[in-house]
Amino acid sequence: MKQVVGICLLALVLTVFSAPAKAETIFFDDFNGDALGSNGTSKNPLKKWTITAGEVVVQGKNANGQTSSDKLAGAGLGQYIRLGYNYKASTMNSAQPLNLLAGSYTLSFTAASYGSYNDYGSLTTGLNANGQIFSFTDQIVTENNPATASIVNLAHSFTLASGVSNAYLFISDLLGDGTIRIDNVTLSYTAAATPIPASLLLLAPGLAGLAALRRGQRQAG
After folding, report:
1. What sign has the CA pseudo-torsion 54, 60, 65, 66?
2. Residue range 79-102: average pLDDT?
């Protein structure tokens, strides 16, 4: 009986050690907490971002049904950031420092490009981890008809070999033509799966063999 209990406990331990890794959201912003028209200035700040270059503005449709003048408002994005507002290339950084563990990360967001100035909108997103920069550039086809503007979901993954503090996310449009809209910015973290210690792997067949031996002894007796 004791051997059976031991094997059951070992099975439980193995299950814990071999549990699959789960993603955890570290940062999220759908810009619904900002007022329409917020542009990151001292009078109209963004709650989670600092504007370091150019101009941006919160547009779209809020929870009360109010919409901005942007023609993509009400297209399913809710509230969102329009980059390159007033045709000035813009950059925004997450305002609060991020303290990150070693592991795998995914930066994802929703984006669209609408206007009549270029064939595509171009933006760069990424993470600055104390000078270690993970940067990703996407080109999104620009539509001049709001009814046919594509809303795309994009994601980029990277790995931190060691933990960092005071990291921040950044978003930048490259053309400054005011076509890029971005929403649902998310940084998620997946810890490495805990490996099963070799000693436990060796212990399992040993306990099973011991249990079989004891059963054989009882039957012989």
Report:
1. positive
2. 95
Q: What are the tokens at 197? A: 């210690």
Cα–chain center distance at 79: 18
Res 55 pLDDT > 90 = yes
Task: Give the global pTM.
Answer: 0.78
Note the maximum CA span of the chain: 92
- For the segment 197-218, the average pLDDT, to the nearest whole number, is 53
3-state secondary structure at position 57: strand
Strands 91-94 and 49-53: antiparallel
Q: Which residues have a Cβ under 8 Å from the Cβ of 185 and sit 6 or more positions away? A: 27, 28, 29, 30, 107, 108, 109, 125, 169, 171
Cβ(112)–Cβ(150) under 8 Å?
A: yes
Mean pLDDT along residues 42-57: 93
Q: Which has the closest alpha carbon to 59: 183, 169, 163?
A: 183
Which letter does DSSP use for residue 20 in this model? Answer: P
User: How many of the other CB atoms lie within 10 Å of CB of 218?
Assistant: 8
User: CA–CA separation, 73 vs 68, rounded Å?
Assistant: 6
pLDDT, tens digit (0-9, with 9 covering 90-100), for 130-179: 999 999 999 999 988 877 788 899 999 999 999 999 999 999 998 888 89
* Six-digit token string for 180: 């890029």
Cβ neighbours of 54 (radius 10 Å): 20
